[in-house]
Amino acid sequence: CVGRCEVAPVGADIIIDIARNGTSIFTTKPKIVAAATVITPGVLDAAQVTCAAGDLVEFKLTQVGAGTKGKKLTVTALGVLV
After folding, report:
1. What letter does residue 35 receive in the DSSP assignment?
2. Could you tell me which of 45, 73, 71 has the C-alpha nearest to residue 59?
3. What is the pTM of this model?
């Protein structure tokens, strides 16, 4: 999971989550720390990263900053078909 935002959050981090069938694929979620613009990597939960046909995969923002919200966020998640 890589990405950045053009306007840095102030007062709190941006926290990104990707869920498979409602459960996060991360044990530690990726984030953009306050005053920064680049994602700090998260830690994948090995039990949650394998998807099957019909699984629902959702991108979520669980926090966006406090004083100034981060803006113009781009997030890319890469996967491998095996």
Report:
1. T
2. 73
3. 0.85
